[in-house]
């Protein structure tokens, strides 16, 4: 990474010198400005972006972003110190000063913030007396410092799985590793995920009481008809552990690797590759310990993430997925021989006469072409295809979403990420695909653009402390149920939306100090229309345009269920009656979230061809792969997937070359 960044800095300095020379020659043609410092502002993705611009009569001397709320790792730097990548808040001001023009390229994957910074600078220049039409000179494309390079391992995709794979490969003996990331900064969709991680955890789960309703969940899973001998063997292992648990007289929460695997397999409608399921679940705790050893921090409490079906969910201490990505970035920054090239897209896999994968071709945002040879292997970690409407239309053939035109449904994912690039690269290299028709929606998307942002923390990891109500003020679904079941129910509601309703009885009681999962105060979200806050249910009903008596009856009925432990919708997770304000309602809708289908792999992340044989030199990890989650991915299992199989891919590529 250090070497690549050094090359980019050197090129920027050269370009800066050339552009200043151009600016000096052309200065007389521009309208003189009044020297001084001026503030400018423009709307960004999450709020105003404010800059301070210092100018002379004929030049832009300095630009400082003084206020912004853009997404860390995408619009703004991921961390205050260390690797920043090419994020608009950091790079657009520098580019404008270096090139003396507003006509600088937007950062890949962060277009809205890029325009916001440029428009804020434009606003300041107008105040300085500039004619901004005179500040639109084109910037010469940056020449590539090289066109070919050789590495031990090349990782395509710099999201959670790709960064985990790069670190793991280095830890397991790779001397040189390259990560290619098409966006301006690493992070992928992991940056905007809910940051929840499932795994059995005896220490934290010992603080949770095993209720009668959760006991029935285990009994039902053990008793259901098995779909295969392997499924029956897993049920038998869980039954043995369950009987031992009951005999012990324990009252704390039961869990095990086998029970986690059985729930994951059953939760995916028993159609996943059970061996891949076991690889995921049996290695989840080791993956958790591994990323913690890299510096990752989790809250010291266990919960049940949205759609995770069991209280084995760990939550990052940092907003969204920034904790995972910053941990990886900090780790890579300390590693010699690991390079990261951002704004560079993998285009095709290179194969030899025998069909073995030997490298990758790529292209950067300036159109420079590269050939990267991988002496030990290529790891594809480019994510799924939930943001690619053409692929969604092509593969949406399951009965589950037959009545829904998924191309018209919003997505929680970044449009610059989940486009299926790596899947198509793998197909061209002979890879087989698994379960491409298995597509997941999630009910956590905001109703404005579908993003998985701007919601109170309990919405993703506090199912026990809230209810879901439709526009009529009525409950309509089991809140702790499967994601697909909930999403189908949401789509059937008026305007295909609903509200999370929570009260001051839960984890936080002061809405004036409470923050959303992505770092916004609830009061600011109220001003923007992302949440509604009311002191009473009557006031809330008025704000939401529903009948107050209906809403109060709904809450009363739920509170009775908490007391009795029996619920009309089959809910099993109860901890909190909803009795007092302030009340918070968060409007949400069902959005495309995860594609469970993808490239076929074995349990060691080797990519398989149509005959089931491994393609030498090709590995894959993360959402690009298929067969792990079946027809319904459990909430919290996606991050586990990136950590477990990212780490495993790095181990395998090196083990295969010993």
What is the topology?
Blueprint: H1 2-26, E1 36-43, E2 48-55, E3 60-67, H2 88-99, H3 111-127, E4 148-156, H4 160-171, E5 177-180, E6 196-198, H5 202-205, H6 212-223, H7 229-248, H8 257-267, H9 274-282, H10 284-293, E7 313-315, H11 322-333, E8 338-341, E9 344-351, E10 357-364, E11 369-380, H12 389-395, H13 421-428, E12 433-434, E13 439-446, H14 458-461, E14 466-469, H15 483-491, E15 497-502, H16 522-528, E16 532-534, H17 537-544, H18 548-564, E17 583-595, E18 598-599, E19 606-608, E20 614-620, H19 637-655
Parallel strand pairs: 4-5, 4-11, 5-8, 11-20
Antiparallel strand pairs: 1-2, 2-3, 6-7, 9-10, 10-11, 12-18, 13-17, 14-15, 15-17, 16-17, 19-20
Per DSSP, what share of the residues sits in E-state strands of 2 or more residues?
A: 15-25%
Q: What can be said about the biggest beta sheet? A: 8 strands, mixed
Question: Compute the gyration radius: what is it?
Answer: 26 Å
Q: Total strand count, please? A: 20
Give the helix level as a range of percent: 25-40%
Number of helices: 19
End-to-end separation in angstroms reads: 26 Å
Mean pLDDT: 91
Classify the secondary structure makeup into a structural class: alpha+beta
Shape: globular
Query: Spans with pLDDT under 50 lasting ≥5 residues?
Result: 1-28
Summarize the structure.
The chain is of the alpha+beta class and 658 residues long. The protein contains 19 helices and 20 strands. Strands 4, 5, 8, 9, 10, 11, 19 and 20 form an eight-stranded mixed sheet that branches. Strands 13, 14, 15, 16 and 17 form a five-stranded antiparallel sheet that branches.
């Amino acid at each position: 990474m250090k070497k690549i960044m050094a090359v980019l800095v050197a090129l920027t300095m050269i370009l800066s010198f050339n552009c200043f020379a151009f600016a000096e020659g052309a200065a007389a043609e521009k309208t003189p400005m009044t020297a001084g410092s001026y503030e400018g502002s423009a709307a960004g993705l999450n709020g105003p972006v404010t800059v301070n611009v210092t100018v002379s009569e004929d030049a832009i001397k300095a630009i400082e972003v003084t206020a912004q709320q853009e997404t860390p790792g995408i619009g703004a730097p991921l961390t205050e110190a260390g690797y920043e990548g090419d994020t608009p808040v950091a790079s657009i001001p520098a580019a404008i000063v270096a090139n003396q023009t507003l006509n600088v390229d937007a950062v890949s994957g962060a277009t809205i913030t890029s325009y916001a910074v440029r428009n804020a600078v434009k606003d300041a220049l107008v105040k300085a007396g500039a004619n901004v039409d005179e500040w639109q000179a084109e910037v010469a494309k940056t020449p590539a410092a090289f066109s070919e390079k050789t590495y031990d391992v090349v990782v395509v995709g710099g999201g959670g799985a790709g960064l985990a794979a790069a670190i793991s490969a280095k830890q397991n003996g790779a001397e040189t590793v390259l990560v290619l990331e098409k966006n301006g900064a690493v992070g992928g969709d992991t940056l905007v995920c809910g940051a929840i991680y499932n795994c059995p955890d005896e220490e934290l789960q010992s603080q949770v009481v095993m209720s009668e309703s959760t006991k029935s969940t285990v009994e039902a899973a053990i008793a259901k008809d098995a779909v295969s001998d392997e499924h029956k063997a897993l049920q038998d292992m869980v039954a043995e552990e369950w009987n031992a648990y009951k005999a012990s007289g324990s009252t704390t929460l039961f869990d095990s690797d086998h029970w986690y695997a059985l729930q994951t397999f059953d939760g995916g409608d028993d159609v996943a590759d059970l061996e891949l399921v076991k690889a995921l679940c049996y290695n989840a705790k080791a993956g958790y310990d591994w990323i913690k050893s890299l510096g990752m921090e989790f809250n010291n409490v266990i919960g049940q993430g949205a759609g995770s079906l069991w209280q084995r969910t760990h939550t990052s201490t940092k907003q969204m997925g920034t904790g995972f990505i910053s941990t990886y970035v900090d780790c890579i920054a300390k590693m010699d021989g690991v390079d990261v090239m951002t704004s560079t897209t993998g285009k095709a896999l290179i194969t030899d006469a025998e069909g073995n994968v030997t490298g990758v071709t790529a292209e950067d945002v300036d159109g420079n072409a590269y050939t990267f040879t991988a002496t030990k292997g290529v790891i594809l970690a480019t994510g799924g295809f939930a943001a690619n409407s053409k692929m969604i239309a092509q593969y949406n053939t399951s009965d589950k979403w037959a009545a829904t035109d998924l191309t018209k449904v919003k997505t929680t994912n970044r449009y610059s990420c989940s486009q299926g690039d790596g899947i198509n690269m793998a197909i061209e290299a002979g890879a087989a695909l698994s379960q491409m028709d298995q597509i997941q929606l999630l009910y956590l998307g905001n109703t404005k653009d579908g993003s998985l942002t701007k919601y109170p923390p309990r919405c993703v990891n506090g199912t026990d402390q809230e209810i879901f109500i439709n526009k009529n003020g009525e409950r309509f679904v089991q809140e702790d149920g499967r994601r697909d079941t909930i999403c189908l129910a949401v789509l059937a509601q008026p305007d295909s939306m609903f509200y999370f309703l929570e009260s001051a009885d839960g984890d936080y009681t002061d809405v004036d100090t409470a923050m959303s999962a992505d770092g916004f105060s609830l009061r600011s979200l109220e001003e923007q229309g992302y949440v509604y806050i009311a002191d009473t249910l009557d006031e809330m009903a008025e704000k939401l345009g529903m009948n107050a008596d209906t809403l109060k009856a709904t809450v009363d009925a739920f509170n009775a269920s908490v007391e009795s432990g029996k619920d009309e919708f089959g809910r099993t997770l109860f901890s909190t009656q909803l009795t007092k304000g302030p009340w918070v309602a968060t409007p949400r809708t069902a959005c495309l979230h995860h594609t469970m289908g993808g490239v076929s792999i074995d349990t060691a992340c080797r990519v398989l061809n149509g005959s089931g044989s491994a393609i030498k030199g090709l590995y894959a990890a993360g959402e690009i792969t298929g067969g792990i989650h079946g027809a319904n991915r459990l909430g919290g299992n996606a991050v586990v997937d990136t950590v477990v199989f990212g780490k495993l891919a790095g181990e395998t590529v090196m083990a295969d070359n010993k």
